[in-house]
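Practice problem: Peptidase M10 metallopeptidase domain-containing protein
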Amino acid sequence: MHAFLRGLISASIIAAIFAGAVIVLFPAPCAKPITYSIGDLDPRFKLPKETFLKDIALAERKWEEQIGKELFVYDPASKFTINLTYDERQATTDKAKAITQSLEKTSESREGLLQKYEDARNVYDVALRLYDKHSAQLNTDSVVFSATVERYNKEGGAPSEEYAKLQAEQARLAERSATLEAERIQLNGLASTVNKFADTEGKIVNTYNETVEKFNDEFSGDREFDQGEYTGNAITIYEFVKNNDLVVVLTHELGHALGIGHVQDPRAVMHYKVNEKNIQAKSLAADDISALMSQCKKGSWDVFYERLMNFTVRDILNTLFHL
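Answer key — structure tokens:
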């Protein structure tokens, strides 16, 4: 009987110790804030620590405002770190930025050139209408002059007074013809300018289209959410374009830190792929909120059971690390 009681007491003590260990090692999600510190901050990102902390705070708030409590707290002494690590992913993004800037400059050059083309074309069109008008008038007057000369020739010659008039008219027609030729030369020069602008614009368009095609081949399309990584004892961000992009990636990885997995809705920040819908989202989607609420309802034993069913060597190391 005493042995049975001793065994029962020992079992109770072991069970209590085990239960305490589960509560300590597998804390209930959302029970207390996750503390974090800033780890690696690669200077190639050109992001000040203060700005990084503000971006993390914005990402935190997306989760915290849904549940009305602090889920994350900055603590410089925390072993859980959030890092910015530069690798080939950010190098690729930087390359994409450079191409985008090149496209913007090309577009600006094209717009400026189009304005010059339009201005030159307008001048050419006015000059062409004047040339056509002057040419038609000269042709009409020349026909009348030729008919008058032919009539006087048939009559045996023009009277001296009329002959003088014909001489003067012939000189005026010659002068107008010379002026018209000058207009033609000027018109050809204007046409050459218009064509030069058109050719240059065409080359710019070809360059622009080739660059866009290259950009789309290399950088377009949805891809898996590999801009960041949560490893249990750290969050590491590898890539972002702008600060709002960084906030979305941080929000995604903080969601993993809360124990939230990927969801189905492409609009959700916890969707497994980066796309235009979730990278531009200003708030959490319904699937994100539902996953958060479900996670925060869990207790230590729920977490223990889930971890037990999916335990890996890395999980063991992470658990020991937190000790």
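Discussion: The longest helix spans residues 88-154. Students who identified this feature from the tokens alone can consider the problem solved.
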